[in-house]
Amino acid sequence: MKKVLFSILKMIGIIIGIVLLYVIVAYFLPMIPVNAEQTNDPKTIEAYILTNGVHTDIVVPTKTEQMDWSTKILYANTKGKQTDFKYTSFGWGDKGFYLDTPTWADLKFSTAFNAAFWLSDSAMHVTFYNQMKEGDDCKKIMLTEKQYQSLIKFIDARFDYDSNGNYVLIPTDAVYGNNDAFYDAKGSYSFLYTCNTWANNALKAAGQKAAIWSPSDFGIFQHYK
Prior knowledge:
Shape: globular
Largest sheet: 6 strands, antiparallel
Number of helices: 6
């Protein structure tokens, strides 16, 4: 009986230790910056990083010479079906969180557990905007054409494709408004690779300031104060 109790306490201690280590690493490691690449090319592409306080999105122009996102993310797939948006935002994350957890009150243990340990699918949340307003939750970044091309490649590579080469729409009423939609995505969410880790890596791909690693939006935005 004592051995069983000792084993249980030891296991609890290990779990608590892992959690504490993660909290410490998640707090301090994002403080290490990745500097923006040095370039003399003109920065002509206006993009943004946007947070809702938890989740970071990458916002880009809907139409440029490099990409017309409206040909891949159809306006008709939104409730509003408006067809003149200036910006398109992308947020990769756990499919269960996106579709089954509209508020924190709806969060289930199974959803959180599956998300933390690579056990669920992922999705791309796409939202159209008419304008962006800079503030603590929205920071503008300027990209060269080459940098934006790299960002396009990074974003596009995370989508699942159907047999015709189109993004795979997720039919759901769990959208956040009239101008957004969800699509199937590649990869698995985990406590090591979160929605914010994806956004942070997107910034790295585009040659922008970023954290060396960050599971939180704070870890990204602290480098844009």
